[in-house]
Amino acid sequence: MKKTLLFFFASTLFCFSTFAQWIEQATGFSTASRGINQIVITSQTTAWATAYNGSGSGSTNVRDFARTTDGGATWTAGTVTAAPTNFSWSCLAAIDENTAWAMFFKNTAAATGGIFKTTDGGLNWAQQGAGVIFATANTSFPDVLHFWDANTGLAVGDPVAGEFEIYTTADGGTNWTAVAGANIPDPIAGEYGYTRVFSVVEDIFWFGTNKGRIYKSTDKGATWSVVQVTGLIDLIEIDYKDENLGWARYLDASSNHTFMRTTDGGTTWTQVFPTGNGTMHLGGLAYVPKTDMTLVSTGVDFNIGDLGSSYSLDGGDTWEDIDFENQYTTVNFFDNITGWAGGFNLDATTGGMFKYDGGFVATGITPAIADYKLKLYPNPSTGLFYLAFDAENNLPINVLVTDALGKVVLKMTYKDKSQLWLKSIDLTNYAPGVYFLKLENNGNETTQKLIVQ
């Protein structure tokens, strides 16, 4: 069976100029051109990322990963050395800064794969289910993996003997149970899944296939249904906000993309035709949790000019650009202020990751509008505020935050209003009390009291 893997190679031109909304971070890989193909975020400070060879030459068998526990200020690179050298990443699952599971496929004609677990932040890994799961030579191919907590997990692979190879675990992966074929709709001829193409909302799990079909479980993998999106093949990306609202992107044999949206959990799909001042990019797509319908798209393909990033606040109908230059291989958000996009590193201290340096309006929050088109909310808060300013000019905007005694605790300058469409002000590390925000633009000033509870 020919297996198409979803990843991209870096262009010979690396673009590392960072715009206001992204902060460049170093993934720590000593080998150059390590691309990021998955980012798993477990908190506002902890994230894991898996790597591939983005140079376009040399071995494609990569078992490298990176991890941060300080919000991306530092990333530590590592390798799942317990996996054979001819294994490559299928998927990673993590529940915190210490516990993660690594799924690999065997990158040879005799396909198989395996799952490896760490409980010490990636220092040591141990294989689970060896010889039992994904062990059928020339057939088994692991695709996606997810854990809801320390015990409950799900692993999905390509069809074996006429049924998708799906396993569940209730003890953290020590033991895996094969889901009975009677509980899984039969695959059609030539059907298989893709690595990392899945979405999870509470107990619901979706994964897509090369035949345009979407498999769905509402009970953490015990039973399954399937939907065929008429006329479309190669589901390459899927993401859901909740049990009803979701998005999917398809790629046909001519590399044409079709963007779809569902409002009934995937039973029916409607094509979306993006418009607006920005471009919906083709490299990565992510729903931003804790927002109504915010999406972020990223571009990676230098050859077709699909570089940069953009956002949509209305579920993909209209888009606004964030930047136009950088190569972003994938993107993921934990909440409306915490997100990362992957890239390509130059060396151990340069590039490979971008952290989002902005924010999106949280669901249910109504901004309080002050003078000079200043929006600041919520206020009072526990220390995290959102600031937006739409100046009537394109001159610099100065932001100053002081405490009640006049001591400066935050000072920022934005070159123009495009850099301050929505930012977060984080005072969570400061004592509760009264602070003052002063904003200056073109000689006009406004001051707003901030209350940290």
Describe the protein.
The chain is an all-beta fold. It is 0% helix and 46% strand. The protein contains no helices and 36 strands. The strands form nine sheets. It has a four-stranded antiparallel β-sheet with strand order 1-28-27-26, with no helix packed on it.
Short structural description:
With 453 residues, the chain is mostly beta strands. It is 0% helix and 46% strand. The strands form nine sheets. It has a four-stranded antiparallel sheet with strand order 1-28-27-26, with no helix packed on it. A four-stranded antiparallel sheet has the order 2-3-4-5, with no helix packed on it.
Write the layout of secondary structure elements.
Blueprint: E1 22-26, E2 34-41, E3 47-53, E4 64-68, E5 76-79, E6 87-94, E7 100-106, E8 113-118, E9 126-128, E10 142-147, E11 153-160, E12 163-169, E13 177-178, E14 193-201, E15 204-209, E16 213-217, E17 225-228, E18 235-240, E19 246-251, E20 257-262, E21 270-271, E22 284-287, E23 295-301, E24 306-312, E25 320-323, E26 331-333, E27 339-347, E28 350-356, E29 368-369, E30 374-377, E31 384-389, E32 397-403, E33 408-414, E34 423-426, E35 433-441, E36 444-452
Antiparallel strand pairs: 1-28, 2-3, 3-4, 4-5, 6-7, 7-8, 8-9, 10-11, 11-12, 12-13, 14-15, 15-16, 16-17, 18-19, 19-20, 20-21, 22-23, 23-24, 24-25, 26-27, 27-28, 29-30, 30-31, 31-34, 32-33, 32-35, 35-36
